[in-house]
Amino acid sequence: MKFVKMLTAVAFIVAVSASLALAADKELKGKIKEGSCCAKAKAAGKACAHPCCVEAAKAGNVCEKCNAEKKK
């Protein structure tokens, strides 16, 4: 019985962790504009190395300069 309780607890923790990770990724995904330096770095599996992007990432945001809306 202890094994079943432990297995259930571990499964719950894994599920909560996965959902939080996916939620955080979705939040930034909507803010990163296609074709920006941040999008290219994310596609390569890295973080953007531009100083403005690094500073924004520390604050939990994306760089407004590099991910600004394109004017038509």
Structural class: mainly alpha
Q: What's the alpha carbon Rg, rounded to whole Å? A: 18 Å
Distance between the termini: 64 Å
Q: Major sheet, described briefly?
A: none
Low-confidence stretches: none
Helix content: 55-70%
Order of helices and strands: HHH
Number of domains: 1
> How many DSSP helices?
3
Overall geometric form: elongated
User: Strand share of the residues?
Assistant: under 5%
Question: Average pLDDT across residues?
Answer: 81
Number of strands: 0
Structure explained in plain terms:
- This protein is mainly α.
- It has one domain (2-58).
- It has helices at 2-29, 37-43, 51-58.
- The radius of gyration is 18 Å and the shape is elongated.
In summary, what is this structure?
This protein is mainly α.
Properties at a glance:
3 helices; single chain; 72 residues
Question: What does the secondary structure layout of this molecule look like, with pairings?
Answer:
Layout: H1 2-29, H2 37-43, H3 51-58
